[in-house]
Design goal:
With about 240 residues, this protein is mostly helical. About 75% of the residues lie in helices and about 0% in strands. The chain contains 9 helices and no strands. The longest helix has 30 residues.
Length: about 240
């Protein structure tokens, strides 16, 4: 009703209301966590290499996801037969992302974090490539659903694996994952822009991003193991 300025003001108002309602829930006075003794005291030197692979995969994910996240609407707008779906595509991303973590949590419980991460990366790769393979509205919806439905789950799984690999140095593990993720987010648009300018099309950038996500999925499946996944669960400390 009022253009982009009104939209931003409306979003700010909604966020302010949400903060007013939920702000009191955020506190440092959390109850002590129940932890498994083996999760703290057993060293994990064999998983240092696993963490290195996790860093590589998480960086690749940042590179891959940020390309459609940055250019999806522009890609749809520049395709005449799909231009009317430009705004809808991002709405689908948001709606899917709002509910996607629920089924992924169930998948994580069944498959483990590492295998669930591999599956999510594979799904994302298919979605990124969809607009290149087909110019149909269905391809746009698939791309939006795959993007919105995976990027938060991938962060959830990667952060969980980092914590599991280094339970005594979680802050250090998370900081490294975040730094490498930011590097991938910077490189993605830079590479995508150069490819788009060179080929006068976003298709090469999408194919590169899809290939990076697919490679990350394969590496995750082969090289990343979840510490303690196959071990019996220890009795909680009392």
């Amino acid at each position: 009703y009022g253009g982009s300025r009104a939209a931003w003001a409306g979003i700010a108002f909604i966020c302010a209301v949400a903060l007013a309602v939920t702000g009191r829930w955020f506190t440092d006075d959390a109850p002590p966590a129940t932890v498994a003794e083996t999760g703290i005291n057993v060293p994990f030197p064999q998983y240092r290499t696993t963490f290195g692979w996790l860093l590589a995969v998480y960086t690749a994910e940042a590179f891959a996801y940020v390309v459609p996240a940055t250019f999806l609407v522009a890609i749809v707008v520049q395709t005449p037969e799909l231009s009317r779906y430009a705004a809808l595509s991002w709405i689908v991303v948001g709606l899917t992302g709002a509910f996607a973590t629920f089924p992924w949590i169930r998948a994580m419980a069944r498959l483990g974090k590492a295998h669930a991460l591999a599956v999510a990366l594979g799904v994302q790769a298919i979605g990124i490539a969809a607009p290149v393979i087909s110019r149909s509205p269905l391809a746009v919806i698939l791309a939006a659903v795959a993007l919105g439905g995976t990027f938060m789950a991938i962060t959830l799984f990667a952060a969980g694996l980092g914590r599991d690999i280094f339970p005594q140095r979680t802050n250090s593990a998370m900081s490294r994952l975040t730094v490498f993720f930011s590097i991938g987010q910077i490189l993605g648009p830079l590479v995508a822009t150069q490819l788009a300018l060179r080929f006068n099309s976003y298709d090469p950038a999408l194919l590169v991003a899809a290939g990076v996500a697919a490679l990350a999925s394969a590496v995750t499946f082969v090289a990343i193991r979840e510490p303690g996944r196959a071990r019996p669960v220890a009795e909680p400390l009392r």
